[in-house]
Design brief:
170 residues; alpha+beta; two-stranded antiparallel sheet; 7 strands; 16% strand
Length: 170
Amino acid sequence: MMQYNSKQKQKGFTLIELVVVIAILGILAAFALPRFAQLSEQAHQSSIRATAGALSAGVALVKAQWVTNGSTTAVSAVDGFGNDDVAVNDDGWATSTNGNTGAPNANRCLQVWEGLLQSNAPEVATTAADDTEYLVGLSGDDCEYEYLLDEQGSTIVYDTDTGEITTTIN
């Protein structure tokens, strides 16, 4: 007959201990998963805000260079900014990179984006493609850049008459 030694240590976990640990992990997951799901949405929103801020800074820098140059009328190329090809209207707001200082169209809005956001700018196009982040269009007489990656219809609107940047996040 075998004798039981009470000094032997128990090895492993009991079924109750395992169930308790699984229950605790389940409760933690229930609170953590919704928070992680919101991170993607917050990242998209931050990206839109950052891009709008960069565009706004570019618009302000062109205007500042236009004023610094002593200009008081429309200029087909602001000397000293970027590639020296950004055209501005009579108020100093960027309108294109092809010398056109008139009202915007989709192609001029695309040129403004590329002329002001020169380095590491998000991909923008007048028609959606696989790598397009922003779709260019018009909202009245304003340039509208619709963010495509979140499929929520969020936009950045640039008013070439006032230099105002408006961000709408849906």
